[in-house]
Protein: DUF5916 domain-containing protein
Amino acid sequence: MVYTWQFALGIFLIVAWKNATFHDSDIVSTSCFQNLKLILQSDQNNNLSLKSLYFPDYLKLKYLARRGEKGRAV
Structure:
C-alpha cells in the first residue's frame, strides 16, 4: 500500500507499507482452507517506509543568487 501527498508544488510525502509472509514446506495441500490456515500461521515481515521529496525551483534560486550579487557590488 502506497500513499502519496503533495503539499505544495514540488513537495511530496510518501508512506509505504509492505507485508510479506514466508512458509517453507514441500507439502502442498489440495484444500483451500488448509492452505489459507498455513499462510495465516506463517512468519510475517511488515515494513513501513516514510519518504519526503522536495524539488527546489531552480529559476527562483537563480533569481535570488543574482539579486544577492547585485547587492554586494554596491
